[in-house]
Amino acid sequence: MELFAEQGYEKTSLREIAERLDVTKAALYYHFKTKEDIIVSLFQDLTRPMDELITWGQEQPRTLETKKEILARYSQALAAAAPLFRFMHENQATMRDLSIGETFKERMLVLLELVKDPDAALTDQIRCVSALFTMHAAMYVLRDAEGDPEEKREAALEVAIDLVSQAHGQAPRVTR
Amino acid sequence: MELFAEQGYEKTSLREIAERLDVTKAALYYHFKTKEDIIVSLFQDLTRPMDELITWGQEQPRTLETKKEILARYSQALAAAAPLFRFMHENQATMRDLSIGETFKERMLVLLELVKDPDAALTDQIRCVSALFTMHAAMYVLRDAEGDPEEKREAALEVAIDLVSQAHGQAPRVTR
Amino acid sequence: MELFAEQGYEKTSLREIAERLDVTKAALYYHFKTKEDIIVSLFQDLTRPMDELITWGQEQPRTLETKKEILARYSQALAAAAPLFRFMHENQATMRDLSIGETFKERMLVLLELVKDPDAALTDQIRCVSALFTMHAAMYVLRDAEGDPEEKREAALEVAIDLVSQAHGQAPRVTR
Amino acid sequence: MELFAEQGYEKTSLREIAERLDVTKAALYYHFKTKEDIIVSLFQDLTRPMDELITWGQEQPRTLETKKEILARYSQALAAAAPLFRFMHENQATMRDLSIGETFKERMLVLLELVKDPDAALTDQIRCVSALFTMHAAMYVLRDAEGDPEEKREAALEVAIDLVSQAHGQAPRVTR
DNA sequence: CATGAATGAGGGTTCATTCAT
DNA sequence: AATGAATGAACCCTCATTCAT
């Protein structure tokens, strides 16, 4: 996962993976049928939290409270599987060709369905899109910025929650 | 650009590019020194609007009004160079190795500097990050969604403007 | 080595080498990291005698007797690795770019240091240079000439020994 | 010639030549039919002295005096066309494929015929080979050594003359 | 469970050369 | 007299994959 996240899928060769694990290329082929199989395996381990979040979300009533909880859990999932999400974000062109059942984008759209109201104003729908992406953006842009990562995560979550709250017609908590 | 955006940089071979243009591989090498040079050229054409925006922004007073204008102009630049931004989004792993990669992220950070206040609360800083990315996200997620693209763009811009307004301590326009 | 000696380094392609060995090009790359690596390997096998000669020579007293012995041994090394030396002679332009190139010329100069006296008259120094090269020249020019190669080698060695003897102030054996 | 001498024939591309002369590749093709034609032209200019020396030598009586004169003239020709000789020496593998009427080696052998006596003892024949090569070797080995080049040339010539003198049964001038 | 050896397909790149203008 | 544009052939090299052992 480290190699894939650093270099991207195509630019990571089996030779590199084998060297990093200190085994031979042929040994990899004992455990995985193809290169694609390797990354699919990694995904199955790492996307479970996200899938669980989705199924959980689908069973809940579609209240603002639920949405806030979804954002909170998503924020945590994001932090827990940071390299995976980084990989998905940065290798979407590749992901399209990989036989991973639902792509990252599809999953995102399902999640989005849970958060946004298809009958709301367009701006409010976008607020919900933005809420989800805010947490990604915060992770991406603030990666090298100073400050406690946990603190940054919480701040991003707060902004996200504000956004869906506004989408529900509530005035945001004004912070100053 | 079409090929790069569809398939990603690494998976697009010079053979494909040449075939699409109905020339030989060698002919490409008369016009571009390397494969990287091809995409760099595409970028130079397409990032000019962004550069102009930055220099313009740096000459303005750092008021809320200016920031709104920056967002408005950025929204337009984004729409004009949509395939380029899609490519960057989806090929970040590659971008890191390309000589332009760094410069794009730098550009984004400079732009961010113009929009956010380094002394503001962390949440407000993230609101500004989010404002910029909202427009990206809207473009990305709503690409295949129904509705007039121009309408969507304006809605995203509105949300972005709300976010920086809030970061300036102003209550958002409540839309419903 | 045969191909390299016949055609030169640049004009010998990996395709040719692979065909001659009846393997694929890719198979070569399993055994050698680069094309250069192939020739470097050939050299390492073939220059060992020369290295041993040098270390031996450096441990001996710098008498005329030693120098004669060095020439005798060098003559033998030359005969043993004839194709190698032919290659070096005929591909010096290439050798300069190869990572071994320098080392060969350096080796020759070290050997020269063992044979010539830096304080002697210029002509005597050149006699020593000439002594070494005589054996090369003989090999090169007389390759296709008639006569027993071993006999020619011995004659060349005799001339070389005469040259260093003269450089030591001794009258040459006059042969007729 | 500079480029060919520095890098060798194969590794010098027409692009490089064109750039060095500040013309286009196509312009070269107006003046020369092929790449080979370029180097052939250079040779015709530069080997004339050597050819003249050969025809002159063939008309002279085959005395020791003549041979000394040949060596003297050859020494001068060598110095005058140093880069050419360097090129020939270092690119023999290439020379073989070039359609330059007589190769360097052939010319050398003709010259050698003029200097050596086919009926002499083998060692004496080698002395004559060595005489010619001494001047080459001196040029090659002593290129980067300190000292006046002209002085070195004369010393090498002296050694060469000594060698043919000995081949004629004369005791060498002992220098110390 | 693992490896050494090998391969076909394709990668990006460079080259000498051509030709209409 | 010169050039911009193009090309076919070849280059070195890397890749994911296979298979007998």
Walkthrough of the structure:
The structure is a homotetramer of 176-residue chains. Chain A is elongated. Chain A is built from ten helices and no strands. In chain A, helix 5 packs antiparallel against helix 10. With 176 residues, the first copy, chain A, is mainly alpha-helical. At the A-B interface, helix 6, helix 7, helix 8, helix 9 and helix 10 of A face helix 7, helix 8, helix 9 and helix 10 of B. Chain A binds a DNA duplex (21 and 21 nucleotides) through helix 3. Chains A, B, C, D: This is TetR/AcrR family transcriptional regulator.
Radius of gyration of chain A, in Å, reads 18 Å
Poorly predicted residue ranges of chain A: none
The end-to-end distance of chain A, rounded to whole angstroms, is 41 Å
What share of the residues of chain A lie within helices?
over 70%
Query: How many H/I helical runs of chain A?
Result: 10
Q: Specify the oligomeric state.
A: homotetramer
Provide the succession of SSEs of chain A: HHHHHHHHHH
User: Structural class, judged by helices and strands of chain A?
Assistant: mainly alpha
Strand portion of chain A:
under 5%
Mean pLDDT of chain A: 86
Number of strands of chain A: 0
Give a concise summary.
Four copies of one chain form a homotetramer. By secondary structure, the first copy, chain A, is mainly alpha-helical. Chain A has helices spanning 2-7, 14-21, 25-31, 35-59, 64-80, 82-90, 92-95, 104-115, 122-141, 149-167.
